[in-house]
């Protein structure tokens, strides 16, 4: 009979090779609890984690309920707004006629602006033409005076000593006519002075500006550039009130100096510094 052989055995896990008592009393864990006592702390921890899981699941359920309530309310509001838009008329809603009216109003505003610009340009052109006409008229008057004086001087020369013997005084010879360069410089000087005066003299009132130019011309043409108030009065355009107003403006700007001599008031030209 063949010798007996040890039957083959499948190696088992350590737990299967003995009881929990042997495992608990093994040398590897000398302080292990007796019997199944080591399961108690593990089960206690498992219970705590299970309660935390349950609390989190309940929180998710509450969140789902809240979202469901919000979705239902929001959907209801959207539905009501949609129905309101479909069933309510909006009389103030822009229509094609509204856009056409807005376009027409914009065109009318542009036309008004263009018309105002044209009127302004026409007023400026008329003002320039008026100034040019005044300057031309003043130049013609000066030429006429010079021609008359020249004729008078010639007649006096022809008569010779007869007039001298008769004791007739000679007329003063007027200043010669200014050259184009001198006239241009005079106009620039007058424009510079007027630009330094208040707004009403700079173009707010065209008549007042023209009168101021006439007064400045009169002072510059006067002997020693000194005049009296009466010398500048030329009714009906330049009455005493207008002349006095212009002279006050020139005195305040220190273009003209006011002096009193022998009971009369004189105005001396100083010009701008």
Write a compact overview of the structure shown.
The chain is mainly alpha-helical and 273 residues long. 63% of the residues lie in helices and 5% in strands. Among the domains are: 16-81, no CATH class; 178-273, Arc Repressor Mutant, subunit A (Orthogonal Bundle).
Description of the structure:
- InterPro entries: DASH_Dam1.
- Keywords: Centromere, Chromosome, Chromosome partition, Coiled coil, Cytoplasm, Cytoskeleton, Kinetochore, Microtubule, Nucleus.
- The chain has a 3-stranded antiparallel β-sheet with strand order 1-3-2.
- The radius of gyration is 58 Å and the shape is elongated.
- With 273 residues, it is mainly alpha-helical.
- It has helices at 20-24, 39-87, 96-159, 161-166, 180-195, 206-221, 229-232, 240-252; strands spanning 226-228, 256-261, 264-269.
- Among the domains are: 16-81, no CATH class; 178-273, Arc Repressor Mutant, subunit A.
- β2 and β3 form a beta hairpin.
- α6 packs across α8 (240-252).
């Amino acid at each position: 009979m063949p010798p007996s052989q040890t039957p083959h055995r499948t190696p088992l896990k350590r737990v299967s090779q003995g009881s929990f008592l042997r495992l608990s009393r093994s040398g590897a864990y000398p302080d292990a609890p007796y019997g199944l006592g080591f399961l108690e702390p593990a089960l206690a921890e498992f219970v705590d984690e299970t309660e935390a899981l349950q609390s989190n699941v309940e929180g998710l359920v509450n969140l789902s309920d809240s979202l469901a309530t919000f979705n239902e309310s929001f959907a209801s509001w959207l539905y009501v707004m949609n129905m309101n838009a479909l069933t309510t008329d909006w009389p103030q809603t822009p229509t094609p006629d509204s856009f056409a009216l807005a376009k027409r109003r914009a065109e009318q505003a542009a036309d008004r602006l263009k018309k105002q610009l044209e009127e302004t340009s026409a007023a400026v052109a008329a003002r320039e033409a008026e100034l040019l006409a005044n300057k031309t008229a003043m130049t013609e008057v000066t030429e006429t005076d010079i021609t008359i004086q020249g004729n008078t001087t010639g007649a006096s020369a022809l008569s010779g000593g007869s007039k001298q013997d008769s004791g007739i005084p000679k007329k003063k010879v007027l200043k010669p006519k200014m050259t184009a360069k001198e006239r241009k410089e005079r106009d620039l000087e007058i424009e510079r002075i007027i630009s330094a005066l208040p707004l009403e003299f700079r173009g707010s009132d065209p008549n007042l500006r023209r009168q101021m130019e006439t007064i400045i011309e009169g002072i510059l043409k006067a002997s020693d550039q000194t005049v009296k108030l009466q010398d500048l009065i030329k009714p009906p355009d330049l009455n005493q009130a207008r002349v006095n107003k212009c002279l006050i403006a020139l005195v305040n700007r220190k273009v003209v100096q006011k002096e009193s001599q022998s009971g009369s008031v004189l105005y001396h030209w100083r010009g701008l510094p």
